[in-house]
Amino acid sequence: MSKRLVKIYTDAGYKRLKQCPIYLGMVVELDETICNHRVINQPALSSTFAEYIALIWAMVYCLRIEEYRCHFLCDNQTMVRQIQGKYKVHKVELKILYDIVRNLWGSFELIEISHISGKINKAHKEVKKCGS
């Protein structure tokens, strides 16, 4: 098992709130950077909801490729603060996603999450590819 700490940038977007689809983007900084994007047929109930979906997708991906030491970088401050325990999760639809993240969290050897500016989020470009 690798001892490196892998950086993973995640982002999400949508064209119309409460309508399908959600666009997901991820950049995994490994020896060779892995960039990926995906469109899912799920309505975005809020921007935070969409960002949770992107984070869960990235976490599952990292577990699938057996990367257990990860630093997730996301531009949705609300989600990041909720996961860090600094904000409470009030919305029912977010509590479900929050619980999924917390359950996945325990599968990692070392895991961190940080808020970054949208301007430096490398996954933003991947989200843009979905809509083109």
Overview features:
36% helix, Nucleotidyltransferase, domain 5, 132 residues, alpha/beta, globular, 5 strands, 5-stranded mixed beta sheet
Q: What proportion of the residues is helical, as a percent range?
A: 25-40%
How many β-strand stretches?
A: 5
How are strands sequenced across the largest beta sheet?
Answer: 3-2-1-4-5
The general outline is: globular
Using the coordinates above, name the CATH class. Alpha Beta
Number of contiguous helices:
4
Q: Assign the structural class, choosing from mainly alpha, mainly beta, alpha/beta, alpha+beta, or little secondary structure.
A: alpha/beta
Low-confidence parts lasting 5 or more residues at pLDDT below 50? none
CATH superfamily: Ribonuclease H-like superfamily/Ribonuclease H
Number of domains: 1
> What fraction of residues sit in β-strands?
25-35%
Major sheet summary line: 5 strands, mixed
Calculate the mean pLDDT score and round it: 94
Distance between the terminal alpha carbons, to the nearest Å? 38 Å
CATH topology: Nucleotidyltransferase, domain 5
Overall CATH architecture: 2-Layer Sandwich
Order of helices and strands: EEEHEHHEH
- C-alpha-based Rg, rounded: 14 Å
Explain this structure to me?
The chain is 36% helix and 27% strand. With 132 residues, it is of the alpha/beta class. It has one domain (6-131): Nucleotidyltransferase, domain 5, CATH 3.30.420. Strands 3-2-1-4-5 form a 5-stranded mixed β-sheet, sandwiched between helices. α1 (47-64) packs parallel to α3 (92-105).
